[in-house]
């Protein structure tokens, strides 16, 4: 057993990890009222305190990554500061979002609604690794594959990263209620953070199309659930109209502060790699918020000199819900929405809100968009599950996409690839439970013993 250190040992260890004295002060904060949102389509601007997130031209406003400066710090000073915060035992720096607050949103600490989100593991599963996990990399066909498991967030998906920032802003602006439309994960996250912030929450869900685990979370955490006849895109239209007319603060990824928080996936991933950028980052793409956010983080990290080159982004859609892929494939033809019908319910989206932002990210990172069938998604999920890692169906699109792009010669087998697993296996257990476990009759004991005997050789 490790002996418990005395207080004096703890203090001297903390002194070792304290930021170096040449680092600039860390207490630079912004007031959201002083920020300016910009329309990426027509250049119009709005106050950072607005609750209307669409420009008059219809395009969602952006919070530019350089809307606030990074405290005037050099790349070396920022890297040292982020590293030093890993030793913090108190305060918001324990969050894998707020640790990077100079790059995310430097709110004053007392405004922050946080529950130590982020800090998600990065699993080395490449074919070049030792151990059973290498099977995942071998399946994808890459020597160096890193799975960033965002399912390890407090509510089991990457949505918590955007929600801690969005909810903090909602509270700072004096919002009286919050709302979102969701395929299930955003609503679970919204419900949890609204409970913490003590704000009433309304979630608009496509009826019968949300996985059980996610629905259970929203209800249990106390959100008022509105089931909308139709799909996610219908729910999105309804919640936008309601938020506008009733003055409820909208926390979908159309809200630029949500996306600011999701940028932290990129910063934390780069930090975990000691700021050595991978060649590729692959992720599932639905409403395109995450593609936009991670892309913005990578571009910002390169601009600040935190990394020497920008990884290429591979955005992976389900073939049955692939309007972004269609546009890309047709030389960036105007977005044509579709009726989505994939079994990966989290990304069952036919009219992605962040299309324009994501298109710019794919262009700027020399990225690609791919589409994979449901069969490919579930085959990839079986690999991740079997490794003992597990993820929800939509997340597995990232691995299926890497495999496809390696097969097409777009990703080189010796590339270093980061893939984002966006949600936890337990979100959607109907899709994994082997039929045998669901059968009324348990397996015969004698047969089970024979199986165990065979497994032991
Ligand atoms: N993976 C999971 C597990 C998701 O829940 C989502 C989106 C995505 C990927 C796609 O991310 O929309 O930023 O492109 N879920 C949203 C929700 C739509 O309501 O929970 P995106």
- Count the E strands: 12
Radius of gyration: 22 Å
**Low-pLDDT segments, ≥5 res:** 1-25
Largest sheet: 6 strands, mixed
Give the helix level as a range of percent: 25-40%
In the sheet with the most strands, the strands line up as 3-4-12-9-10-11
Distance between the termini: 36 Å
The helix/strand series, from N terminus to C terminus, equals HEEHHEHEHEHEHEHEHEHEHHEHHEHH
Summing up helix and strand content along with how strands pair, one would put the structural category as alpha/beta
Instruction: Give the overall silhouette.
Output: globular
Structure description:
This protein is an alpha/beta fold and 457 residues long. Helices cover 39% and strands 12% of the residues. It has 16 helices and twelve strands. The strands form three sheets. It has a six-stranded mixed beta sheet, sandwiched between helices. A four-stranded parallel beta sheet has the order 7-6-5-8, with helices on both faces. A two-stranded antiparallel sheet has the order 1-2. The protein is globular and about 70 Å long. The structure holds ligand F0G.
């Amino acid at each position: 057993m490790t002996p418990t250190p005395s207080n004096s040992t703890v203090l001297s260890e903390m002194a070792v990890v304290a930021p170096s004295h040449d680092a600039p002060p860390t207490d630079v904060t912004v007031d959201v009222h002083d920020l300016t949102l910009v329309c990426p389509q027509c250049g119009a601007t709005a106050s950072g305190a607005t609750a209307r997130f669409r420009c008059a031209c219809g395009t969602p406003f952006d919070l530019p990554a350089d809307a606030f400066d990074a405290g005037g710090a050099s790349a070396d000073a920022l890297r040292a500061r982020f590293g030093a915060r890993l030793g913090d035992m108190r305060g918001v720096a324990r969050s894998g979002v707020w640790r990077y607050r100079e790059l995310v949103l430097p709110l004053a600490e007392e405004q922050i609604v946080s529950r130590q989100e982020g800090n998600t593991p990065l699993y080395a599963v490449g074919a070049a690794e030792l151990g059973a996990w290498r099977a995942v990399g071998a399946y994808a066909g890459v020597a160096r594959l890193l799975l960033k498991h965002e399912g390890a967030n407090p509510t089991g998906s990457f949505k918590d990263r955007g929600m801690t920032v969005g909810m903090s802003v909602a509270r700072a602006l004096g919002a009286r209620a919050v709302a979102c439309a969701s395929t299930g994960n955003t609503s679970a996250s919204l419900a949890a953070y609204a409970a913490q912030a003590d704000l009433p929450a309304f979630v608009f869900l496509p009826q019968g199309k949300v996985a059980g685990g996610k629905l259970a979370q929203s209800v249990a955490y106390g959100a008022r659930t509105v089931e909308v006849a139709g799909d996610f895109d219908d729910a999105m239209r309804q919640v936008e109209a309601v938020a506008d007319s009733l003055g409820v603060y909208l926390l979908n990824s159309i809200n630029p502060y949500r996306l600011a928080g999701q940028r932290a996936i990129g910063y934390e991933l780069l930090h975990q790699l000691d700021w050595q950028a991978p060649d590729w980052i692959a992720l599932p793409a639905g409403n395109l918020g995450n593609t936009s956010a991670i892309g913005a983080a990578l571009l910002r990290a390169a601009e600040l000199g935190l990394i020497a080159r920008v990884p290429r982004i591979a955005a992976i859609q389900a073939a049955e819900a692939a309007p972004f892929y269609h546009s890309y494939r047709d030389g960036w033809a105007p977005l044509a929405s579709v009726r989505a019908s994939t079994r990966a319910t989290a990304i069952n989206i036919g009219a992605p809100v962040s299309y324009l932002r994501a298109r710019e990210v794919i262009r700027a990172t020399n990225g690609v968009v791919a589409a994979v069938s449901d069969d490919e998604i579930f085959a990839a999920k079986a690999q991740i599950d079997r490794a003992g890692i597990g993820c929800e169906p939509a997340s597995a699109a990232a691995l299926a996409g890497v495999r496809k792009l390696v097969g097409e010669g777009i990703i080189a087998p010796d590339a270093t690839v980061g893939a984002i697993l966006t949600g936890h296996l337990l979100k959607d257990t109907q899709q994994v439970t082997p039929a045998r476990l669901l059968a009324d009759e348990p397996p015969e004991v004698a047969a089970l013993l024979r199986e165990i005997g065979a497994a032991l050789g």
